[in-house]
């Protein structure tokens, strides 16, 4: 069993995540599931910034500034 886990860890985690989000879809619906995924992604991003000892607010500010520079050409 340990060999299966070490050789196919990504497949097991992917299958478990698929099962989890499939159950959310069955009980909550598609749009609610997308909101859950968005919140999980935001939480992961903040946790990653915390692990890297970076300021999440500074990263958001930099992202907004880059987004503003990209959209400037459409004005």
Characterize the structure shown:
With 75 residues, the chain is an all-alpha fold. The protein has one domain. Helices cover 85% and strands 0% of the residues. The protein contains 4 helices and no strands. It has helices at residues 2-7, 9-28, 30-51, 56-71. Helix 2 (9-28) packs across helix 3 (30-51). It is extended and about 55 Å long. The mean pLDDT is 81. The chain crosses the membrane at residues 12-45. It comes from Marinicrinis lubricantis. InterPro entries: DUF2273.
Order of helices and strands: HHHH
**Structural class category:** mainly alpha
Low-confidence stretches: none
Q: What is the CA–CA distance across the termini?
A: 59 Å
Number of strands: 0
Topology diagram in text:
Elements: H1 2-7, H2 9-28, H3 30-51, H4 56-71
Helix pairs in contact: 2-3
């Amino acid at each position: 069993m340990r060999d299966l886990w070490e050789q196919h860890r990504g497949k097991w985690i992917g299958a478990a995540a698929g099962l989890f989000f499939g159950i959310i879809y069955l009980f909550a619906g598609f749009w609610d599931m997308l909101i859950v995924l968005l919140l999980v992604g935001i939480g992961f991003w903040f946790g990653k910034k915390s692990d890297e000892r970076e300021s999440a607010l500074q990263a958001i500010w930099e992202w907004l500034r880059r987004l503003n520079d990209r959209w400037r050409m459409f004005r």
